[in-house]
Each structure stands twice: as structure tokens, then as C-alpha cells.
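Tutorial, part two.
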Amino acid sequence: MAVNTKTEYALRVLIELAEHGLLSAQKVCDTQKLPKKYIEHLLAMMKSANIVQSAAGSQGGYSLCRKPEEISFADILKAVEDSSFDSSCVPENGRHCLGNGCKLSLFFHELNDKILDVLSNYSLADIHKYFIEGQKDESR
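Running the prediction step on this input gives:
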């Protein structure tokens, strides 16, 4: 499964904040080569989810609200409204569902619970570790 662009960009922003602390949206965008308007929208979403906080002024910017170990991948997905890992059977919109009386709905709900459990067990700190290891591999 691949994450969508919102989640990829959010992870890149959060890794920058985890590494450097308080940063402006512009600085993050310059470093990561990301579109500022899009990143400002994602930062607003993550601020509403209490993942990041902002400080106004010339020395202001964004920082993490919690330690990277306390921010789960599931928290990030929820904040940016990425449902690409959601496998639940939802009869109302036909998602993974054959309609009323679908015999697979229990399976999809159980699968979704297990996926959510796995996603909740990966923290931003874990993801950052993989990011750092990936950088080491690229330099070989």
C-alpha cells in the first residue's frame, strides 16, 4: 500500500520539525522542495489535530506539540484525512462492500482493526529512524 501525497508531505514536514525544532513553513518548503500553500494547509490540519503548534512573529514558526515517540502514524493519517489504509466495509458508500447483508463486512472490520493497531504502533520517531537509515543507504 502506498501513502497518498498528503501523508508523504506531512511526514516530510514532521521529520523536519523533529530534527530542527521551530521552523517556518517557508523554511520547511525550501528544504524539502514542497509547495508552500499545500504545506500551510497540511500544517493547519495537523495543528487542529494537536500534532503541531505555531508561534507568531518574525522568530515564529511551527514545532511539534508532543515528542516524536508520542505521535503515531495513525495520528498523522487521521490528521491529514488519509483513509488509504482503511479497509472497513461501509455499505453506505459501497466501499469494499457488496451491499446490505454482505457476508464480508465482519472480515473487513476485523482487518481494519488490525491495520489500525499496526499503524498506531509506529511513531514519528520510528519513521524518522527509517528516514535516517534510508539516507545512509543512499550515500553508499
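The CA atoms of residues 74 and 116 lie 7 Å apart. In part three we will examine how such features are distributed along the chain.
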